């Protein structure tokens, strides 16, 4: 066999050994990577879920992906470190090749120069197990996908859902009032503190009677404050409007000024105060005198007051406003009207009119006839009492005078009890006992 | 050290093949046994043949001595056999008017000694073989006498009828290269025996190989290359016969194999390489020979024997667990179809 041929064979076998070495070493590395990779993917998925749950916002940007990449890289390094001890050298891979191909150590012998290289016919000794390769990757991808794609309700929303509805409503209401610069923040802060106190109690007590009562009380207080502020605003608006009328006597003007000051004072002293700027402008107008306001200034102030009042009115729940305020009609005497008002704009739905057609002409008071409950003596489910006529327990037995010493009743004691009342088995048992 | 060339190995192999063919005419249907016996001879080892009576153990040894043209002696071991009966005795002789002790050699002084039913002799007589087998000499009355070279002991023993027998001590067993179990003949072999043999007659065997040729082949065997990885495999195999806590290999073994077992395994692997026409010993040689080399060198513990384990089953599990190369295979790979 020529030297050239031997050299070619050596190259072929050594290349085959290198391929085998790469495959084996990669497989060792991959095997060492499996659990760290799954752990990295699991951690990333967990962080993604936590981030979405608690709204950390990591999943929105690159942060989470960077964490994932860093963890996978760390897992790869860890696996590399662990797999190194199993890695084969080129010489060892040659031995592995000859052992698997059952070449009787011909390659080692030839490599040591003690024999010739055998003919190269095949070198495939190992093949991949697809399921072992794919499962870890699929598992890791699944972990990450679950972390990013599984539907999760953020914990804040969950808490909000679990809280009494009124708390959220009040919070939103307050936030909006402050955001739209309708009221000053002091009041909102106070209310929020009180809501916080309620929320800080044990969640199992959120819906307790005491908590709901406190919540209701808070809601009513808030509504009262809104109504009061709205009323005061309307009063101030009235004062301004009247002050703008011509032909008022000085006395009347003075009276209006005092009323205006009083209304402004009311606004200032209330818990819910209009925004600072409006309060300053009203105070300035009161100082300078209402007659000093130009028509434009007066209109601007009135617009702001009305807008604010309207805004407050819109906040209120439908049907809960007061409908018995004095009307705002303009009387020739420039006095407040005496008719009842129309109620709040959102007082709530009224009746639908003649929903069932026009009223019958027979529907007159004199035609009313009383209805008699035919079943009043029959108890209905839930009735604690009924109207049945109760027959009192009466001793209907005829009583007659008896002579002394005579026995009216024979009684049921002694022998008669066990002779007449016991069943045969009991009678037998009792009898055998006494015998 | 001069390594054997491919030409030398090829020449040796051709001679060995002739030996094999000749022995096949003596013993029908026992090709594997013949291969082991020849391997043992080429490795300069002593062989212990165990099998039921009539399976051809003695015939094999007698045939071998004829084929190899070696001086052979047969010793039938009995309980009353004395050491001097096999080693030889000093005998008082008169020479030129003087009386002096002259050493009269015993039957051990032959190239091929057939120790028939060796376990029937007393331990004292058995131990007389120790020095002969290991150092190839006999010492009587402080005087050592070299045994002829080559020197082989082929002993037989019967696994049944153990009454009145003396099991060979471990030290003696360790000196046998192989313990070979002679299996019963297959039907085809039995049919061939019936057709070609007659009771009470011996088969005609022609000499095949002279002593000089045999020694030259044995020299070739010594020149066989033993790769480092194979030596490492032998070492790991022998080491695995020693029980270690937490390791499955070697479980059930009370006493493991000695370094002499490793040497025997290496030597036998080289002999087999020559028989296969290779210039190097291999993993496959070691694996094939391991049961024959190790089975009489390990002692099983009581629990393993109660469980039905035998040296062969334990060695098989060791061979299964000890890979050719340390490291194993990662789970994501499997042997290619």
What does this structure look like?
The complex is a heterodimer of chains A (435) and B (337). Helix content of chain A is 59%, strand content 1%. Chain A contains 14 helices and one strand; from the N terminus they run ααααβαααααααααα. Mean pLDDT of chain A is 77; it is low at 319-350. With 435 residues, chain A is mostly helical. Chain B is an alpha/beta fold. A five-stranded parallel β-sheet of chain B has the order 2-5-8-1-9. In chain B, strands 3-4 form a two-stranded antiparallel sheet. In chain B, a hairpin with a 2-residue loop joins strand 6 and strand 7 (143-146). In chain B, helix 1 packs across helix 3 (57-67) and helix 11 (283-294) runs antiparallel to helix 13 (311-321). Chain B starts with 5 loop residues before the first helix and ends with a strand. Chain A binds chain B through residues 23-24, 27-28, 30-31, 86, 88, 92, 95-96, 99-100, 102, 104-106, 108-109, 112, 114-116, 124-129, 132-133, and chain B through 3, 6, 225, 227-230, 273, 276, 278-285, 324-325, 327, 329-337. Strand 1 of chain A pairs antiparallel with strand 12 (333-335) of chain B.
- Binned, the helix content of chain B reads 40-55%
Rg for CA atoms of chain A: 48 Å
Strand content of chain A: under 5%
What is the count of helical runs of chain B? Answer: 13
Biggest sheet overview of chain B = 5 strands, parallel
Average of per-residue pLDDT values of chain B: 89
Distance between the termini of chain A: 125 Å
Low-confidence stretches of chain B: none
- Class of secondary structure makeup of chain A: mainly alpha
> N- to C-terminal separation of chain B?
41 Å
Morphology of chain A: flat
Please tell me what the overall shape of chain B is. Answer: globular
Sheet with the most strands: spatial strand order of chain B: 2-5-8-1-9
Order of helices and strands of chain B: HHEHEHEEEHEEEHEHHHEHHEHHE
């Amino acid at each position: 066999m020529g030297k050239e041929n031997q050299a070619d064979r050596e190259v072929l076998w050594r290349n085959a050994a290198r391929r085998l070495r790469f495959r084996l070493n990669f497989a060792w590395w991959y095997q060492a990577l499996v659990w760290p990779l799954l752990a990295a993917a699991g951690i990333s998925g967990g962080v993604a879920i936590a981030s979405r749950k608690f709204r950390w916002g990591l999943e929105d940007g690159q942060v989470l992906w960077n964490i994932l990449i860093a963890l996978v890289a760390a897992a790869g390094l860890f696996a590399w470190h662990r797999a190194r001890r199993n890695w084969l050298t080129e010489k060892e891979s040659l031995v592995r090749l000859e052992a698997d191909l059952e070449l009787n150590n011909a390659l080692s012998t030839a490599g040591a120069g003690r024999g010739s290289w055998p003919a190269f016919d095949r070198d495939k000794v190992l093949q991949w197990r697809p399921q072992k390769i794919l499962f870890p990757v699929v598992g890791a991808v699944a972990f990450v996908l679950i972390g990013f794609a599984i539907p999760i309700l953020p914990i804040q929303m969950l808490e909000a859902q679990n809280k009494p509805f009124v708390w959220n409503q009040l919070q939103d209401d307050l936030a909006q009032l402050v955001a739209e610069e309708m009221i000053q923040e002091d009041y909102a802060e106070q209310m929020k503190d009180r809501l916080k106190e309620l929320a800080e109690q044990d969640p199992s007590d959120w819906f307790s009677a005491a908590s709901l009562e406190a919540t209701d009380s808070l809601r009513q207080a808030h509504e009262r404050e809104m109504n009061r502020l709205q009323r005061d605003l309307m009063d101030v608006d009235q004062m301004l409007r009247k002050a703008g009328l011509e032909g008022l006597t000085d006395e009347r003007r003075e009276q209006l000024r005092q009323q205006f000051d009083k209304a402004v004072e009311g606004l200032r002293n209330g818990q819910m105060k209009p925004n600072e700027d409006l309060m300053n402008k009203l105070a300035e107008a009161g100082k300078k005198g209402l007659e000093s306001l130009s028509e434009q200034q007066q209109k601007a102030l009135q617009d702001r007051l009305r807008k604010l009042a309207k805004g407050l009115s819109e906040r209120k729940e439908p049907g809960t406003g007061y409908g018995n305020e004095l009307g705002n009609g303009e009387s020739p005497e420039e006095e407040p009207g005496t008719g009842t008002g129309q109620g709040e704009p959102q007082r709530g739905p009224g009746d639908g009119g003649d929903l069932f057609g026009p009223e019958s002409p027979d529907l007159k008071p004199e035609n009313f006839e009383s209805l008699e409950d035919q079943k009043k003596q029959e108890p209905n489910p839930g009735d604690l009492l009924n109207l049945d006529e109760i027959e009192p327990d009466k001793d209907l037995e005829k009583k007659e005078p008896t002579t002394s010493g005579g026995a009216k009743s024979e009684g049921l004691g002694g022998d008669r009890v066990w002779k007449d009342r016991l069943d045969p088995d009991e009678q037998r048992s009792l009898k055998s006992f006494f015998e | 050290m001069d390594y054997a060339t491919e030409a030398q190995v090829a020449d040796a192999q051709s001679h060995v093949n002739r030996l094999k063919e000749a022995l096949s005419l003596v013993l029908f249907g026992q090709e594997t046994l013949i291969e082991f016996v020849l391997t043992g001879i080429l490795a300069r080892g002593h062989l212990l043949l165990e099998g039921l009576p009539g399976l051809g153990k003695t015939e094999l040894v007698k045939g071998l001595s004829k084929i190899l043209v070696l001086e052979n002696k047969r010793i039938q071991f009995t309980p009353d056999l004395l050491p001097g009966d096999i080693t030889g005795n000093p005998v008082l002789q008169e020479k030129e008017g003087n009386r002096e002790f002259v050493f009269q050699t015993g039957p051990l002084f032959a190239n091929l000694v057939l120790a028939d039913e060796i376990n029937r002799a007393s331990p004292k007589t058995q131990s007389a073989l120790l020095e002969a087998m290991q150092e190839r000499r006999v010492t009587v009355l402080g005087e050592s006498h070299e045994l002829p070279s080559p020197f082989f002991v082929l002993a037989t023993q019967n696994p049944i009828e153990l009454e009145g027998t003396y099991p060979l001590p471990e030290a003696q067993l360790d000196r046998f290269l192989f313990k070979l179990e002679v299996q019963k003949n297959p039907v085809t072999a039995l049919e061939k025996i019936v057709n070609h043999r007659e009771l009470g007659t011996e088969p005609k065997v022609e000499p095949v190989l002279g002593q000089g040729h045999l020694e030259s082949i044995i020299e070739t065997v010594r020149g066989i290359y033993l790769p480092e990885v194979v030596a490492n495999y032998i070492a790991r195999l022998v080491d695995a016969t020693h029980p270690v806590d937490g390791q499955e290999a070697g479980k059930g073994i009370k006493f493991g194999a000695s370094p002499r077992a490793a040497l025997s395994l290496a030597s036998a692997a080289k002999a087999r390489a020559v028989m296969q026409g290779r210039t190097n010993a291999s993993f496959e040689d070691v694996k094939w020979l391991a049961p024959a080399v190790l089975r009489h060198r390990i002692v099983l513990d009581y629990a393993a024997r109660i469980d039905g384990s035998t040296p062969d089953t334990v060695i098989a599990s060791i061979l299964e667990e000890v890979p050719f190369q340390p490291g194993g295979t990662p789970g994501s790979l499997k042997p290619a179809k």
